[in-house]
Design brief:
Order of helices and strands: HHEHEHEHEHEEEEEHHHEEEHEEHEH
CATH class of the largest domain: Alpha Beta
Bound molecules: pyridoxal-5'-phosphate
Number of domains: 2
Radius of gyration: 21 Å
CATH architecture of the largest domain: 3-Layer(aba) Sandwich
Strand order of the largest sheet: 1-9-8-5-4-2-3-14
Shape: globular
Oligomer: single chain
CATH superfamily of the largest domain: Type I PLP-dependent aspartate aminotransferase-like (Major domain)
Number of strands: 15
Strand content: 5-15%
Length: 371
C-alpha cells in the first residue's frame, strides 16, 4: 500500500518562517499573554484581505460567537444560516440563545441561495443577523446577498473559514459583510494548529470583541467585571505560526488550483461527474476539490476504493436541517443541499501531494468506470 494521502493536512513553509516567529516569542519570553506576534498577525491578515481591523482568537467558532454578540444577537433572536455547512457555523447561534433558520443552497454557487434568503425574509422580516458561508473556497453570490441584507437591515456575518485566498469580483471574501471570520484549524488552507480571526471595518467593535475575549476585564487595578467574559484570545506562539503561514498563502492557493485543474482535466470527461461550479466572478482558493456524481458510480464507491488504498476523501457536509440536533428548527428552500450531500464527494486536496500522488488517485477513481 502507498503512503497515506490526506484530504488536507498542515503544510508548514519550506523556509521555516513559522519557527522564526515562534523562536522570537521564546527568546523574548512573550509566550503569553498576547505579544508582538498577535498584534502583527492581526495587522498582516487585515491588510492581506483588505479589512480595517482584526482580532486574533482561539478558533473560527469563537470568532463567529463574538461576531453574533457584536451584532447584538441575543435570546430569542432569529439568525439565518446556510444549511449546507459545518456545524461550527450554526453552534454559536445556540450559544447566544438565539434561533437558527436554515437556508438552502443553489447549484450555481453551492452556497446560500439568494432566492431562498429573500423568501426567508418575507417569512421573518425582523431578523437581526445573517451568516453566509463560502464553502470549499467557492464564494457565495455576494452582490445579491449584501443587497437583500441591506433591504431588511440585517447584520451580515461572513463565515470565510474555508475561503482565505478566495476573491469575489476582485474583493476578498470575508470583507463584504459587517463581520468576517477566518479559521486556522488543522485542515484549513493555512493553519496555526488551531485559531481564528474576526475582521471588520468597524474598529470599535473589534476593540470590544478583544475585551470580551480577555474575560471582559474592566480598566481597574483590581479584577472588576461589568460584562460577561470569554477566554477566546489567540496565544503569541500560535500567532507566530500564523504569521509564517500567511507568507505562503499565495503558494497554497496556487497549488490548490493546480490540484483542482488536474482532477478536472483527468476526471471531468467521465460519465456522471460534475465538478464544483465555476462563475466568472469567482476566484476560488479551491480548498477542497469537490464533485457530484449522477451515474452508476456513487460517492461511497469512490470513498471506499480510495480508503482501501490509504487515501482520505469525504462526503459533502450533511445539511444542518437534517442533523438530529438541529432538525427542530425551520428550513427555507427545496432539496438542493440534500442533493449535493447525497451525490457529492471531496477529493484529497493536500498541498503536499505530488504529481504521482495525483496520478495515483485519478487511476484508482478511473478504475471504477472500467468495471
Ligand atoms: C472550520 C470551519 C469553522 C470552524 O473553525 P474552527 O477554527 O475549527 O473553530 C467554521 N465554519 C466552517 C465553514 C468551517 O469549515
Amino acid at each position: 500500500m502507498g503512503e497515506r494521502i490526506f484530504l488536507s493536512s498542515p503544510h508548514m513553509s519550506d523556509e521555516g518562517y513559522e519557527m522564526q516567529y515562534v523562536k522570537e516569542a521564546f527568546d523574548t519570553n512573550w509566550i503569553a499573554p498576547l505579544g508582538e506576534n498577535v498584534n502583527q498577525f492581526e495587522q498582516e491578515l487585515a491588510s492581506k484581505v483588505g479589512s480595517k481591523s482584526a482580532a486574533a482568537l482561539s478558533s473560527g467558532t469563537a470568532a463567529i460567537h463574538l461576531a453574533l454578540k457584536a451584532a447584538g444577537v441575543g435570546k430569542g433572536d432569529i439568525v439565518f444560516c446556510p444549511t449546507l455547512t459545518f456545524s461550527a457555523t450554526a453552534n454559536p447561534i445556540i450559544y447566544q440563545n438565539a434561533i437558527p433558520v436554515f437556508i438552502d443552497s443553489d447549484y450555481e454557487t453551492w452556497n446560500m441561495c439568494p432566492k431562498a434568503l429573500e423568501e426567508a425574509f418575507e417569512k421573518y422580516p425582523n431578523v437581526k443577523a445573517v451568516i453566509v458561508v463560502h464553502l470549499y473556497g467557492l464564494s457565495a453570490d455576494m452582490d445579491k446577498i449584501v443587497e437583500i441584507c441591506k433591504k431588511y437591515n440585517a447584520v451580515l456575518i461572513e463565515d470565510a473559514a474555508e475561503s482565505l485566498g478566495t476573491y469575489y469580483k476582485g474583493k476578498h471574501t470575508g470583507t463584504f459583510g459587517d463581520f468576517g471570520i477566518f479559521s486556522f484549524n488543522g485542515n484549513k488552507i493555512i493553519t496555526t494548529s488551531g485559531g481564528g480571526m474576526l475582521v471588520s471595518d468597524n474598529e470599535e467593535k473589534i476593540e470590544k470583541t478583544r475585551f470580551w475575549a480577555t474575560q471582559s476585564r474592566d480598566a481597574a487595578r483590581h479584577y472588576q467585571h461589568s460584562e460577561l467574559g470569554f477566554n477566546y484570545r489567540m496565544s503569541n506562539i500560535v500567532a507566530g505560526i500564523g504569521r509564517g503561514q500567511l507568507k505562503v498563502l499565495d503558494n497554497r492557493v496556487k497549488k490548490k488550483n493546480y490540484i483542482f485543474e488536474y482532477y478536472k482535466r483527468e476526471l471531468g470527461g467521465l460519465e456522471g461527474i460534475e465538478f464544483m461550479p465555476s462563475n466568472e466572478w469567482n476566484e476560488p482558493n479551491y480548498w477542497l476539490s469537490s464533485m457530484t456524481l449522477s451515474g452508476k458510480v456513487r460517492p461511497l464507491d469512490i470513498m471506499e476504493v480510495l480508503e482501501k488504498e490509504n487515501i482520505e476523501s469525504r462526503p459533502i457536509w450533511k445539511p444542518m436541517h437534517k442533523q438530529p440536533f438541529f432538525k427542530k428548527y425551520d428550513f427555507v428552500g427545496t432539496n438542493v443541499s440534500e442533493n449535493l450531500f447525497e451525490n457529492g464527494v471531496c477529493l484529497p486536496s493536500d498541498t503536499k501531494m505530488t504529481d504521482s500522488d495525483l496520478a495515483r488517485v485519478v487511476e484508482i477513481i478511473k478504475g471504477l468506470w472500467l468495471k
